[in-house]
Amino acid sequence: MIYHILDIFFVIFHSSVVLFNLFGWIWKKTRIYNLVILGLTGASWLFLGLLVGTLGYCPLTDWHFSVLNKLGVTDLPSSYMKYLADRITGLDISASLVDKVTLYTFLAAIVISLLLNIRDYVKAKK
Predict the structure, then answer these.
(1) Pairwise CA distance, residues 3 & 6, whole Å
(2) pTM above the 0.85 mark?
(3) Alpha-carbon torsion 82, 57, 21, 102, what sign?
(4) 34-65 burial, b for 16+ CB within 10 Å, e for fewer?
(5) How far apart are CA 18 and CA 5, in angstroms?
(6) How many CB atoms lie within 10 A of CB 84?
(7) pLDDT in tens, 62-116
(8) For a tag site, which of 20, 61, 99, 118 has the least CB within 10 Å?
């Protein structure tokens, strides 16, 4: 029972982090937090990834997949986004496509967030 609750928690929490990464720059009050979370996400993917030997590493994915293993779920993909896309659609979407869309939308979000945060900082200094 607890693992089912944890599964639901991770789907909601991790998906919320993903959505905040993608759209947190929209609201001025959340822009700086968005940039921080994007930075932490990128650092996890790169630096933690290098430490554990898998670029794109995310501890939330690791913890969620451990819960799913306890629930008997096997053959999990290497990325949470692939898992989520498949879980939502019921399809087997190409891992390569999901990884590319994930990377490009992340890069777009970080560029937008960075530019808007710089603009806000410059405006505040005037």
Answers:
(1) 5
(2) yes
(3) negative
(4) bbebbeebeebbeebeeeeeeebbbeebeebb
(5) 20
(6) 19
(7) 999 999 999 999 999 999 999 999 999 999 999 999 999 999 999 999 999 999 9
(8) 118
Find where tokens 């959340």 sit.
30
Tens of pLDDT, residue by residue over 42-69, are: 999 999 999 999 899 999 999 999 999 9
Residue linked to tokens 């096997």 = 74
In this prediction, residue 126 has a pLDDT band, given cuts at 50, 70 and 90, of: confident
Radius of gyration of the chain (CA): 16
Question: CA-CA distance, 3 to 20, in Å (whole number)?
Answer: 25
Task: Determine the Cα–Cα distance for residues 110 and 49; give it in Å rounded to an integer.
Answer: 19
Which burial class, exposed, middle or buried, applies to 75 when counting CB atoms under 10 A from its CB (0-12, 13-18, 19+)? Answer: exposed
Within 24-93, residue ranges assigned H as helices are: 31-43, 49-52, 59-70, 80-89
- Beta carbons of 111 and 24 less than 8 angstroms apart: no
